[in-house]
Write a structure and sequence with these properties.
Length: 283
């Protein structure tokens, strides 16, 4: 059911010598001479965050630059393991900041439905939003323990009943469309998120696999290329997750979220948002 689509975020192209190249085609001189259109404030702030990500190569990521394969994974694990850990109660307030609707500061954006919903409607009723563990907490049996169970790099606001529909299923393409969340599909052993967040889901899963490697008293989390992983510390399907990461590169919302987590809460980053190419370097 997963279909390739046009990427919804494209990094800023370099403008030089009065020529802007998009792909291999130059825009007309008239278009180049048109007055610039100001970016919305919410987007502008995220663009600044995206631009600054490269600066982290000389600081935050300096011990990973130039590495690949297992050496890169080990270096990134060491880097991102230096973090502030939240309690499960603190996650509620953190998500209100990390997933804030850029068009309405009173709301959060729900992961699977894309719905903008009041921050105050968090809870347990069917249309409330709750804390979805994208890496299902039963896959490795870490529950809501401080650490993987409270790591907001993979915790997202979701509609309560849609969260229940996803349950602890692995990720894969196909199934029947979820009535309450059009664009999402599910079957007995897998869940396919809507196109707009397929890459987000993939990068959250791969972050968890690098961050939690069997230390900290928790299981060694690893993606694999199967579904129905049950309670084993694995989630699939890796080949599909890799494809999703390529089809749906990091957008402004995801970049801003990474920055907010780094600046205000855990003080660590998801490296696959800053460097999506590292997905294929490791897996």
């Amino acid at each position: 059911m997963s279909v390739l689509r046009v990427n919804r975020w494209i990094p800023l192209a370099v403008i030089a010598a009065g020529t802007l190249l998009v792909g291999a085609t130059a825009q007309s001189s008239a278009a180049l001479n048109a007055p610039p259109t100001a970016a919305p404030a919410s987007t502008a702030s995220v663009i600044a965050a995206g631009r600054s990500a490269g600066a982290y190569d000389d600081t935050y990521y300096k011990d990973a630059i130039g590495k690949s394969g297992p050496a890169l994974k080990t270096a990134l694990h060491t880097i991102i393991s230096d973090q502030t850990k939240l309690s499960y109660d603190e996650v509620w307030e953190a998500l209100k900041a990390t997933d804030e609707d850029p068009a309405n500061a009173s709301n959060v954006i729900l992961l699977y439905t894309g719905r903008s919903q009041s921050k105050t409607t968090n809870g347990g009723n069917p249309d409330d939003w709750n804390r979805e563990h994208v890496w299902a907490k039963s896959h490795g049996d870490f529950g809501t323990a401080t650490g993987p169970g409270t790591d907001i790099h993979h915790l997202r606001p979701t509609d309560v009943s849609v969260n229940s529909t996803r349950g602890n299923k692995d990720f894969d393409a196909g199934g029947s469309e979820v009535g309450e969340a059009p664009g999402n599909y599910t079957d007995d052993d897998s869940f396919e998120p809507r196109d707009a967040v397929k890459g987000d889901v993939a990068r959250m899963i791969l972050y968890m696999a690098v961050r939690y490697d069997g230390g900290d008293g928790f299981a060694d989390l690893e993606p694999n290329d199967q579904v129905a992983n049950g309670s084993s510390p694995a989630i699939g399907r890796l080949s599909v997750l890799k494809a999703w990461s390529g089809e749906d590169p990091p957008d402004a919302f995801e970049q801003k979220r990474n920055q907010v987590i780094f600046d205000r809460f855990q003080h660590n980053r998801n490296p696959f948002i800053d460097h999506p190419e590292w997905v294929n370097e490791i897996w």
